[in-house]
Amino acid sequence: MVWRLIAVMAIPLLLASIFGGIRIRDAVEESTKTRAEASQVAAVPALLELYAASVVLGAAQIPRAVTPDVTSRADRAIANAQALTGGGTLHPDIARTADAMVNTAEQIRAGGTAPAGSIQLVVNRLHQLQGNVVDVVESSVESIDDVSVRNATSRLVDIQSSRLLLLDESVAFLRAQLTPGHPRDDFVALRGAEQASLQELARQYPADDARVAKLVSVEQQRQQWIVASTKPAVVRDQGVTSSELFATLSDEAAGSIQATVSHRSSEARTSAIRNTVVVLLALFCALVLAALVVRSITGPLRRLQTATRRIAEEDLPAEVERIKVGESIDDVHAEPVPVHTREEVGRVARAVDAIHGQALRLAGEQATLRLQVNDMFETLARRNRGLVDRQLELIESLEFDEKDSTSLDRLFVLDHLATRMRRTSDNLLILADKGVRRASTDPVRISDVLHAAISEVEDYRRVKATEAPPGMLVEPAATDVVHLLAELLDNALRASPPDKDVRFNIAAAQDQGLLIEVADRGIGIPPAVMADINENLRHGTDPGPDTARQMGLFVVSRLAHSHGLEVRLRPTFDTARDPGVTATVHIPHTLIVAPPAESVPPTESELSMDLDHRLLVAAAEAAPHTDGSPSDGPHTDRSVTFSPPSGFSRGPDGTYSVTLGIR
Q: Which residues pair with 649 in a beta bridge?
């Protein structure tokens, strides 16, 4: 469930991360682009200075009026341009144009104080520089989509064009002064071009701009003096003034471009940082929110799962067990599931609480029904047991008085059948979880317990028993051990073929207890079924549909658990056609006491007593009877009934003798 919730929350987070990453990438790319543009635009002032210094130097070379300041300015401009082109930060196209400008400027600088060739060569080189600087300016701002940059670039280009026209006009005027009779057509054409250029430049500035107004005024005055041709010095001074104004406007336009591009670069960098921070913060908040949402869902689910498992595995079984042992359902309080939300999980928790309560109610009803059934079983069992006890007393009295051996054998059969009926009644009492009432609490000799168990089964002659060790079993364990062993012997006799004996072995265990084995030679039990039976014998089982079919094992399990006995089944032989089953019973030493000092084993003469006397002795020693009066009714108890064990034979005088020996 947690992983599914994480997957559901991860999809929008992943999409947000993708789109946020795209936005960050775009911002970073824009910042990188603007930085590159700023680095390209940063080269414009230096190249403009190179162009301006070269123009001043070329203009001074024509009249041979070069001064040290002019050459120094040109040298500085060339050095700065060389450092710029060698830095590797310029675009390749701009770098090539800048190199060409440096070469042209060096050629002009090589002329010294006089032009290296004709005046036209210097003018051509300056025209070449003007074209290069315009290319540099336009290439630097080509990718910049900004109105102010485009306007400043347009002004800068017009300024350089007007500046170059001023130079051409000055050169033409100088030629006219130096060469009398020189044609003035070129001068007139240049004059018109300069005026048109100034008008175009003036339209790009405010009407009240004093510098442009002064530039136009100086140009008009210069044109008048040029026409008059009377004061060349005034014309030259006015040309210098115009050149300085052009330089001021050029520097301003270049500075505007550089400032705008730098501002754009700074904004792009700030935007990239801001977008990165915003996206990362948004993703972090989304992750925190998703974690809180997942936790708000999985927390109650986890508590619901834990509480439900605790109810199913611990609370409910313990509560049902308390109800089964007789505790009132009103005293059993169901712990509610610790989920108190009003969402679906909370409603499921309340449904679990309702199911828990219904389960306790059903357990209470089942316990009540079981108690009623147990009471019914107890009533029927005790009534049947009282009738059977009276029947046994009547059969015993007939046995004492009967002299005919055939009739006596039939009475013995009736005695065993009645004994089995009484044991069946006792089984019903055990099934109803009711104890069998006993009349005595004195310990019983182990040998008498074994003889009594053998006498409980009908086909006792097939039971081959070993000698019992000395000692006595305490009550009520002695009577229950007789019952337990009788059930095991009865099962073993029924499972064995009629011609096979059942071995009944007993020996002292290592822990000072007793180890009793009942081994048959039947067809055996499948390993899986035997494992289930041993599990039930080890841990006990509740009455169910198989209880009536396997009542003997159920009774054995109940009796063993009531006294701490250990009962286990195993194959008699690992490999055989009829491997059989061996039931092992371990009696702990806490149930065994030492026999009285005057108690001695029976002698041969005692074993050959008259049967009537032997029956009385066995009955007195094995399990005391009640007085058998009719007033006992259904509660008359008879712990052990003794029937003649294997080896007894009847003589011609009507008495029984035994030929068993002591091992």
A: 657
Going by their DSSP bridges, the two strands 581-587 and 444-445 should be labelled as unpaired
Confidence (pTM): 0.47
Contacts of 297 (CB under 8 A, 6+ apart): 5, 345
Residue 33 CA to its chain's centroid (Å): 46
Q: What is the pLDDT of residues 344-373, one digit of tens each?
A: 888 888 898 888 888 888 888 887 887 777
CA–CA distance, 250 with 254 (Å, rounded to integer):
6
Instruction: Count the Cβ atoms, other than its own, within 10 Å of residue 328.
Output: 10
CB 337 within 8 A of CB 304: yes
Number of H helices, E strands in the chain: 18, 10
DSSP 372-407: HHHHHHHHHHHHHHHHHHHHHHHHHHHHHH---HHH
Cis amide bond preceding 588, omega within 30: no
pLDDT tens across 66-115, in order?
A: 788 888 888 888 888 888 777 667 778 888 888 888 888 888 888 776 65
What is the rounded distance in angstroms from the CA atom of residue 141 to the CA atom of residue 149? 7
For 454, residues 6+ apart whose C-beta sits below 8 A from its C-beta are 460, 463, 465, 489, 504, 645, 646
What are the backbone dihedrals phi and psi of residue 209, each rounded to the nearest 5 degrees, phi first? Answer: -70, 120
Report the alpha-carbon distance of residue 490 to residue 507 in Å, rounded. 21
Give the angle subtended at the CA of 537 by the CAs of 534 and 538, to the nearest 5°. 85
Q: Which two tokens stand for residue 515?
A: 């180890």
How far is it, in rounded angstroms, from Cα 252 to Cα 561? 110
Distance from the first to the final alpha carbon of the chain: 73
Grouping H, G, I as helix, E, B as strand and the rest as coil, residue 508 is strand
Query: Is the preceding peptide bond at 476 cis, omega within 30 degrees of 0?
Result: yes
